[in-house]
Amino acid sequence: MDAHPEARGLPPDATAVAWDRDSLEYAAVCSEIYGSGLRYVQEFAKNHPGLKNWCVVLDIDDTVLTTAPFRVEERGRAFNGCRWLKWNQSHFLDAVPGAKRFLDGVRRLPGAHVVFITDRRPVMLERTKVNLRRAGLWGKGDLLIGQDNPDDTKQKRRRDCVERAIDPRCKADGPMMIAALFGDQVLDFKSLYGDAVRSARARIVRDGAWDPRYFVLPNPMYGAWKVGYSPEKWHAKDWNCR
Ligand SMILES: [Mg+2]
């Protein structure tokens, strides 16, 4: 049996990064999730004829773009916003397998919109659009909503921006019904922390209790799961750029 990655001089997350970057299985799982996501959304459109303003909401990192190349260079270091920001200024990320086919399919449906909700900072958004366009993931009329400040949670943006359109960032498009959500973290779907996540997990294992609108992409590299879904630890990201 192989020695532990660290014992072989590799970063602690080497196995996860290699699985994400190199394995057929990662590509197959992602492609399968997006395939079933598209069938779900096509069914939704069929069941809501005449619905004018509805959308799919997607996270960016490790949902539609894979960050494995950045992780390789990081060699297991703790997340640092400045290094992440700088890296993105000189590199582009590739699409997660299946994402493009899914988005192309969604855009053909009547009344459909695509909304990206990410915790990338406002300063990164123009470059993010360029990356999405380059990866074939950006379409006319898409919305990209970054995180303005620490209180600007994804839950808040889904509610105030997308569903109610009381946030200036979404006003032009008006309120939209969310048909399906795609993400690699529980927070991409709902605001759940600590024990609430553990109970939700137990209900999935016991009864398969998981909202069919929620499509989870695999991310073995990092996540709130690594810190026991503790909000303090998960949000303690270093963005101090000197
Ligand atoms: Mg993500």
Strand content: 5-15%
What's the level 1 CATH class? Alpha Beta
Number of DSSP-assigned strands: 5
CATH homology-level superfamily = HAD superfamily/HAD-like
What low-confidence regions span 5 or more consecutive residues with pLDDT below 50? Answer: none
| N-end to C-end Cα span | 44 Å
Say which molecules are bound, naming each kind only once.
magnesium ion
Structure write-up:
The chain is α/β, with parallel strands linked by helices and 242 residues long. It has a single domain (5-235), classed as 3-Layer(aba) Sandwich (Rossmann fold), CATH 3.40.50. The protein is built from nine helices and five strands; from the N terminus they run ααβαααβαβαβαβα. The protein has a five-stranded parallel sheet with strand order 3-2-1-4-5, with helices on both faces. Helix 6 (125-134) links the parallel strand 2 and strand 3 (143-145). Helix 1 packs across helix 2 (24-47). It is globular, with a radius of gyration of 18 Å. The N and C termini lie far apart (44 Å). The relative contact order is 0.17. The model has no long low-confidence stretch (mean pLDDT 93). Residues 59, 61-63, 184-185 line the site of magnesium ion.
